[in-house]
Amino acid sequence: MIELAHFQLLGAALFAVGVYGVLARRSAVLVLMSIELMLNAVNLNLIGYAAFADFTEAQRALGQVLVIFVITIAAAELALAVAIVLRLYRNRSSVNMDQVDLMKW
Amino acid sequence: MTIGVEWAWVIPALSASAFVVVALFGRWLPTRGAFVSVAAVLLGFVLFWFVLADLLANGGGTFGGGWLVLGDVNITWGVIVDRLSVTMIGLVTFVALLVQVYSVAYMRGEPRYGWYFAAHALFAAAMLALVLADNLVFLYLAWELVGLGSYLLIGFWHEKRPAAEAAKKAFITTRIGDVGLLIGIILLYRATGTFDIGGVIHAVENGVGAGLISQATVNLSLFLVFLGAMGKSAQFPFHVWLPDAMEGPTPVSALIHAATMVAAGVFLVARLMPLFEMAPGVLLFVAVIGLFTFAFAGALALVMTDLKRVLAYSTVSHLGLMMLSLGAFGMAAAILHLLIHGVSKALLFLGAGSVTHGTGRTDIREMGGLWRAMPITAITFTIGAASLAGLVPFSGFFSKEEALITVLDERGLAFFVPTFAAALLSALYMARVTFLVFFGANRGEGEAHESPWLMTAPLLVLAPLALVLGLATYGWTDAYQGFGYFLSGKAAHASPAWLAGLSGGLVAAVIFVSWTRYVGRPSWLPGAARYADPRDPKVYPVTGHAPAWRDRVHRLLVNGYYVDEAYQWAIDRVFLALGRLVALFDRVIVNDTGVDGPALSVWLSAMRARYLQSGLMYTYAMAMSLGAVGLALLWWLAA
């Protein structure tokens, strides 16, 4: 029997993997993928609550709507991020995050 | 509707309106507005007679309306019409009228002719408001306007550097005293709760008796008020501005010395006389300052070689005598001397202006024998000088007599003897200046000529007054029982015959000695005329001809006891050093530490903190993650 706790545990694990990836990976592409992992971990939580918790119909529908929104915005954001990474590669012939320190004083 | 005491306020208002009209529209008026100013003061003088007549017939009073209500304080635009203020109104309008008429000729051709008359009107209006004011705030306002008027007129030729400097000096010196006056007024208000002069006097009279107001408060506030009077009336140590004020046009000097400005200080003490009588210590101080100034300035007048400077120091000296009379409880004697001195000094200054106009010179060593060329000026000037010298039938004799007897009766011999000596000094310098200018041989070059009638006419009006005004000292009818009785209701001190004889005789003797010295030795006196040479050492004192101590004394006097130098030293060494210290404090503590300090520390910490921005993405991500974990922990712990 699948319960809410399973959704939460899977979501937490996925989020932790995403955080680790963002912090530890050097490649910008992998960092982006890790961010996607975190987003999806959140989505899992939302869906889990929408499916199991003792909410009203309207509230559970709201959880699903929120997931659709997150997916949409993640797609848009990823398009932008990939474009930035592409420009980065054109300019620096590398997508190594260690070498990208433009965002400072 | 009859014109009477209720109309007194119109007199200053007329001149004030004339100031506005002439200052704003003078350039489009004929004679550039001078006639407006003259007409205003003439009307004022006419009104004065109506006010005087009504005052004598029906008595005076206080008239006015509200001006400001600040909390419980009600300040009015009120005028006091009493014998003191009306007497002053008469003097001020009269002298201002003559001086303005004289100025029409004297100032002809000046580039700022209209402005001169505008400033004149302002000056007269301020002085008239000052003598009429019934409360201390209004009085202080007028007092400061008098200062402004003097500044504008002394500095009338402000293209000349000395004139600009003199105007500044007059303004600042009197301002120093005015600060005292302002604090004194505030202290009086704190003690009594009113600005109304009558109310203050009443409250202090009752308050001191009932123990509500301490004697120390009265003493301190009156001392401070007297500081203001010292500044305006050029008493030592504030006298320094007055000789320098000679840089202004000569008619201005006549006005300042006779009717406005310097009379203000004497008037203020006279107006507050009931208060001063409750502070005998302060009154003694007034007497000491007056006596010191009387003698001190008289000696200076003796050695000055500039005609106007002689007259200036003579004014300082006579103001000292007025203050001394006030210090001897002699309000009537002081005001009488103020009147007679005012008339005589206006005459002398206008005469001096006429001499300058006729010869183009101001140095008395370059004059002599001018009576041939300028008979009217010579005769009128001599009458004025004789009046101030205190020669017997002239009016100055009577007022000086009043002052002397007041001092003798109230302050005793210790004050009387120096006063008497200083009075002889004034006879000596007046004789010296008259003889050097109008008699003896002409030491100057070039032609002298008599002045136009507009300038001699005021002289001819003033001279008879300087001759006979002294008769007003004594009562001649039952209706008029002497000036002292007229003014204060108290009978004047009876002048003993021995004093009249002594002072009259000594003054005559002093003048005779002066004649032998500066004009020539009469043939019936033994000894030859030793100083026939016009460049003789009596006229041109040179070092080396006299014993060394006399040179030293002469140098000391010519330099005015080095008071100006002492002030300059004090300003350079003390005030500027203090100023530099304050400036340093301001720069280092206030500016560099107080204002720039926080700004600098923000900048410095920003310079350190910016290295937190590594630009590496994962440092930001790590900080964000740790922050989120921290927040979660906090939330969890708190729950």
Q: What is the fold's blueprint, element by element?
A:
The complex is a heterodimer of chains A (105) and B (639).
Chain A: H1 4-24, H2 28-52, H3 57-92
Chain B: H1 10-25, H2 34-58, E1 61-70, E2 73-81, H3 83-106, H4 113-132, H5 136-154, H6 161-192, H7 197-210, H8 215-232, H9 241-244, H10 250-258, H11 262-271, H12 273-276, H13 280-303, H14 307-327, H15 331-359, H16 375-389, H17 395-411, H18 413-438, H19 453-468, H20 483-488, H21 497-518, H22 548-558, H23 563-609, H24 617-638
Antiparallel strand pairs in B: 1-2
Helix pairs in contact in B: 1-2, 1-4, 2-3, 2-4, 3-4, 3-10, 3-15, 3-19, 4-5, 5-6, 6-7, 6-8, 8-11, 8-13, 10-15, 11-14, 11-15, 13-14, 13-18, 14-15, 14-17, 14-18, 15-16, 15-17, 15-19, 16-18, 16-19, 17-18, 18-21
What brief labels describe this structure?
heterodimer, A: 105 residues, mainly alpha, 3 helices, B: 639 residues, two-stranded antiparallel sheet, 24 helices, 2 strands, 71% helix, globular
Would you kindly provide a written description of the structure presented here, covering whatever features stand out?
The complex is a heterodimer of chains A (105) and B (639). In chain A, 78% of the residues lie in helices and 0% in strands. Chain A contains 3 helices and no strands. Chain A starts with a helix and ends in a 13-residue tail after the last helix. Chain B has helices spanning 10-25, 34-58, 83-106, 113-132, 136-154, 161-192, 197-210, 215-232, 241-244, 250-258, 262-271, 273-276, 280-303, 307-327, 331-359, 375-389, 395-411, 413-438, 453-468, 483-488, 497-518, 548-558, 563-609, 617-638; strands spanning 61-70, 73-81. Chains A and B meet through α1 of A and α24 of B.
